[in-house]
Amino acid sequence: MAFVAGVILMYLPEEPAFRVLCQLLDGAGVGLRSMYLPGLSGLKEELRMLDWLMERLMPELKQHLEVGTLIWGFGFICSV
Description:
Blueprint: H1 2-11, H2 14-25, H3 41-57, H4 59-67
C-alpha cells in the first residue's frame, strides 16, 4: 500500500493525496482495500479476471507468459 500512496504523493500535495487514497480504498469506489485484506481475496479475484480476459482476447500472449513464469497471475512479478 505504501507504493500506491507514494505514487499519489508524487503528483499531489499531502492533503489531496490523502483524500484520493481514501477514495481508492473506499468499498463504494474502486475498492482497492479488498486487495490488501488477509487472504488477498480482492487481488485473487482481479487476477482471475485478468486470466479470463487474456485467455479470451490475447491467447498467444497468455501462452507466452505462462512459459516463463512460476505462477501465472503473479507472472509479472515471479518470472523465471
